[in-house]
Amino acid sequence: MQVFHTKSKVIITCNKRLSPYLIEEVKELGFTIVRDFPTGLELNITLTECIKLNLNLRCASQILYQLKHFKARNPDELYSELRKLAWEELIDFTGYFSVTSNVDNPTITTPLFANLKVKDAIVDRIKDKKGVRPNSGADANKTVVHLYWKDSEADIFLDTSGETLAKHGYRKIPGKAPMLEALAAAAVLNTKWDRKSPFVNPMCGSGTLAIEAALIATNRRPGLYRMNYGFMHIIGYDEQVFFAERRILKDQIIKNPDIHIVASDISEDAVEVSRKNAKTAGVDGLIQFEVCDFEETPVPETGAGVVVFNPEYGERLGVHSKLELTYKRMGDFMKQKCKGYFGYIFTGNPDLAKKIGLKAERKIEFYNGKLDCRMLEYELYDGSRRLNTDTVAT
């Protein structure tokens, strides 16, 4: 099975509401999209081309290469169809593989049973052909096989990513209630930041927004921080292709960017975590870290830039009444100290958003985990137009 050189259906998945940004990324890399949907898109490419995508995409989760589409009404038919595939040409009999699935079939009460049938079909086929059973388990750090099964329609994929791409590899210390890297990247891409004017991130937490801003401004891709993917454990993998793609990533880094990124937090521990994460990402020298209340965050007086908040939402952290005052203070801070900037507040609490005291120009929809969120955009006029403080965000 020459999967590295044979075109097939490839599904790139992402978290809900990230598909518009994933689509733009894939197009910029020169790929033609067959179709898109709310949690991803479809291409028709080789597994070798999946290597480039895995190393470059900021907003993706998994890149799945289809091996076969078939009909299966029940677990026995699933096993029978999968047993026909030449797994011995894909998975080394001395190797290790895991199985993931997305199953909606009336004969299946738990996805784990479907996973077991897939595993049994693969193991039995390889044992029959090679006389040895490969090892399998839950770890996604080697070969990963993915089953999509809805009613009687089934697809079996190689997960070329393995561990999710939504984590970019530099955040060794996550901090409290962290924002996933893919979501942070999409949030930064959604601002009106020109990648030259200041980027200010009060309440920076573990630093994800500021770090993603630095990575985007310097064209550093997630593949720079990761050396293990699912495609590396498939028979036929040529490591020279991987290293050639990594050289491209290194060569395209903008070495001396003219940017000013400020990240602050009242917690000294949070700032220290941010520094360490930024150092791992290689961008610690590009970010000015400050330990202070957000109202004391130094805002460059350039008359242009963006200020981005990701405050507590009142769901798991903090006290609601205290957060009402915090949200009002954020609005006052932006009005008084960020004139000429675009302001952004990422929140999952529309009631608290009403306390900001500014009219949102845009309300961009996101999910943070399962929580329905908005990133509110405010144009903070520098005096040419009076700030509208009478209309509040809803």
Strand content: 15-25%
Low-pLDDT segments, ≥5 res:
384-394
The largest sheet, given as strand count, sense and whether it forms a barrel, is: 8 strands, mixed
> What is the number of helices?
10
Number of strands: 15
Terminal CA distance = 55 Å
Structural summary, described in words:
This protein is of the alpha/beta class. It contains 10 helices and 15 strands. The chain has helices at residues 19-28, 47-56, 75-83, 111-130, 181-190, 208-217, 239-251, 268-281, 320-337, 350-353, and strands spanning 8-13, 35-37, 40-45, 62-71, 96-104, 135-137, 143-150, 153-159, 199-201, 261-265, 287-291, 306-309, 342-347, 362-368, 371-379. The strands form 2 sheets. An 8-stranded mixed sheet has the order 2-3-1-4-8-7-5-6. Strand 5 (96-104), helix 4 and strand 6 (135-137) form a beta-alpha-beta unit. Helix 2 runs parallel beside helix 7 (239-251), helix 3 (75-83) packs parallel to helix 4 (111-130) and helix 5 (181-190) packs across helix 6 (208-217). The protein is elongated, with a radius of gyration of 24 Å. The model is unreliable at 384-394 (pLDDT under 50).
Short recap of the structure:
This protein is an alpha/beta fold and 394 residues long.
Main attributes?
disordered C terminus, 7-stranded mixed sheet, 394 residues, alpha/beta, single chain, elongated
Write the layout of secondary structure elements.
Blueprint: E1 8-13, H1 19-28, E2 35-37, E3 40-45, H2 47-56, E4 62-71, H3 75-83, E5 96-104, H4 111-130, E6 135-137, E7 143-150, E8 153-159, H5 181-190, E9 199-201, H6 208-217, H7 239-251, E10 261-265, H8 268-281, E11 287-291, E12 306-309, H9 320-337, E13 342-347, H10 350-353, E14 362-368, E15 371-379
Parallel strand pairs: 5-6, 5-7, 9-10, 9-12, 10-11, 12-13
Antiparallel strand pairs: 1-3, 1-4, 2-3, 4-8, 7-8, 13-15, 14-15
Helix pairs in contact: 2-7, 3-4, 5-6
